[in-house]
Automatic annotation (TrEMBL):
Species the sequence originates in: Pseudomonas libanensis
Domain of life (superkingdom): Bacteria
Residues covered by the DEAD-box RNA helicase Q domain: 6-34
CDD domains in the cross-refs: DEADc, SF2_C_DEAD
Protein name, entry field: ATP-dependent RNA helicase DeaD
EC top class, as a word: hydrolase
Catalytic activity: ATP + H2O = ADP + phosphate + H(+)
Chain ranges of the Helicase C-terminal domain: 219-379
Pfam families per the UniProt record, alphabetical: DbpA, DEAD, Helicase_C
Length: 557
């Protein structure tokens, strides 16, 4: 085994997969990967208890890709995810690891997108299908044989799927799959509902449990900015106006992005250069030397190209593109704040990436505070300060060296010294906006910063309008008690979310739960009167869509 391939070579993965892993910058497998990959490659069923951020996507993606036959143009692996955001994230990971596997195709199947192209991709032979349960059931209603060739099933974040109310959909999907398939289940927790699924649908599963280690980066001031994906460059330029940095490294995901962003920075007068895998070693060394001695101030790099980069004068790290996992984030921002020095790390977050931000905060054990784009006044003040600093050293002897020229020019042009100075300033600032109104026009619009959960993965997840508009509670069945939660439609809650959470955490049979009414600002749930207080205590810390359920007995006075 060479040092370059690290511990991944020990798995005897397909060489093309191993090459893709090396290209992503991973050097050693994480704990979940170390334990899971051999089990999945051996074809055994498995239950993995691991949090998001432990590297579990690669733990199942690498061995499944190893087992895929590119010559067979048919679905061979199905990965189920609770939300469209996670489905897209998992699909992207599979595409990354399959980059050097000709003929292997990945399709993401989720609500909110046209069904036709998704079904066409499956029928055209996509070997990897990454899907949300609700949309996949929609496809099964059109073609019940669509999963008949699947050999590998992965349930990713199974507990979240049950909380979101996908129990029935999962049963439909299980029935549509060949009974001989391999089944792998990942879940952060293993409540009774998950254990029941494992007992019914997994064959002698191996158990793997990983404790998440908190990674600390306390020496570095961290912040994030919400921004639309197509406004990242303008957001970066706005932040650079007010950030007081010495040297700075910006991280992006692709080689092309390094070139595009470096070019945009150079056009604005910054001393910037790109650093990516296509750059020759001698040129890479020149870029790093230039950053060290001040000929360059900004380097735009991919994770792989920045490996081993250690420049003491780096005061800031900009994560322009979200890293693939929390470990990469920790490595990136570790480029600053070294040897006891202060460092600052800024992370640009698109609306779809809020979930990964939460994972980063949990893994690092630190809150990444939100900042906003500098307002027009802050930008104007920063521009005038830079102009002042650049002109101040020139003023001392300027009158003695250029005073006579000034007199001649004002006479020849027929203007006042003030008018000439203003004209020279206009030329020196090269059309840069230096009024509040002009700067305001330059600023990008950013997304609403109010937190929200993952979007519903199909229109059927939305709360029923009739439930929201009803005001009088319906009559209560005998033996049931009505309970209230302050979560409602405006929190993005649907009846199926509440049902899934109570089934998952309360350990009840489905028939024990009565009517669920979702209103705009609260919801009502019918639960068994017998043992109610004990059940409510059990549900005390349950969260739905990221918020505490806090069920209480509802008294109708």
């Amino acid at each position: 085994m060479t040092q370059e391939t690290g511990g991944f070579a020990a798995f005897n993965l397909n060489p093309n997969i191993l090459a893709a892993v090396i290209a992503t910058g991973y050097e050693e497998p994480s704990a979940i990967q170390q334990q899971s990959i051999p089990i999945i490659m051996a074809g055994q069923d498995m239950i993995g208890q691991a949090q998001t951020g432990t590297g579990k996507t690669a733990a199942f993606a690498l061995p499944i890709l190893h087992c895929i036959d590119p010559a067979k143009r048919e679905p061979q692996a199905l990965i189920l995810a609770p939300t469209r955001e996670l489905a897209l994230q998992v699909a992207t990971a599979f595409e990354t690891y399959a980059k050097q596997m000709p003929g292997v195709t990945v399709v993401a199947v989720y609500g909110g997108a046209p069904m036709g192209p998704q079904l066409k991709a499956i029928r055209n032979g996509a070997q990897i299908v990454v899907a949300t349960p609700g949309r996949l059931c929609d496809h099964l209603r059109r073609d019940e044989k669509v999963l008949s060739t699947v050999n590998h099933l992965v349930l990713d974040e199974a507990d979240e799927m049950l909380k979101l109310g996908f129990m029935d959909d999962l049963e439909v999907i299980f029935k549509a799959l060949p009974p001989t398939r391999q089944t792998v289940l990942f879940s952060a927790t293993l409540p009774q509902s998950i254990r029941a699924i494992a007992e019914r649908h997994l064959r002698d599963p191996q158990h793997v449990k990983i404790q998440t280690k908190t990674q600390t980066v306390t020496a570095i001031e961290q912040a994030h900015l919400l921004v639309h994906a197509d406004q990242k460059t303008s957001a970066v330029l706005s932040l650079l106006e007010v950030e007081d940095f010495d040297a700075l490294i910006m991280f992006v995901r692709t080689k092309q992005a390094t070139l595009d962003l470096a070019s945009a920075l150079e056009a604005k007068g910054y001393k910037a250069a790109a650093l990516n895998g296509d750059i020759a070693q001698n040129q890479r060394e020149r870029v790093i030397d230039s950053l060290k001695d001040g000929r360059l101030d900004i380097v735009v790099a991919t994770d792989v190209a920045a490996r081993g980069l250690d420049v003491p004068r780096i005061t800031h790290v900009f994560n322009v593109d979200m890293p693939y996992d929390p470990e990469s984030y920790v490595h990136r921002i570790g480029r600053t704040g070294r040897a006891g020095r202060e460092g600052r790390a800024l992370l640009l977050v698109t609306p779809r990436e809020r979930r990964m931000l939460q994972v980063i905060e949990r893994v690092t054990g630190q809150k990444v505070a939100e900042v906003r784009l500098p307002d027009a006044q802050a930008v104007l003040d920063a521009r005038i300060k830079k102009l002042t600093n650049s002109l101040a050293p020139l003023v001392a002897d300027a009158e003695s060296t250029h005073g006579e020229l000034l007199d001649r020019l004002t006479a020849d042009i027929g203007c006042t010294p003030r008018a000439l100075a203003a004209a020279l300033l206009r030329k020196a600032t090269n059309g840069q906006a230096l009024t509040l109104a002009a700067i305001e026009k330059e600023r990008p619009l950013v997304p609403n910063s109010a937190p929200r959960g993952d979007r519903p993965e199909r229109s059927g997840d939305r709360p029923d309008r009739g439930d929201r508009e009803r005001r009088a509670p319906v009559p209560l069945a005998e033996g049931r008690a009505r309970c209230r939660t302050a979560l409602g439609a405006r929190d993005g809650i649907a009846a199926k979310n509440l049902l899934g959470a109570i089934l998952n955490e309360g350990g009840l049979a489905r028939e024990a739960i009565g009517r669920i009414q979702v209103r705009d600002s609260f919801s009502l749930v019918e639960l068994p009167e017998d043992g109610l207080e004990k059940l409510l205590t059990k549900l005390k810390d349950t969260r739905v869509a990221g918020k505490q359920l806090k069920l209480r007995r509802y008294r109708e006075d």
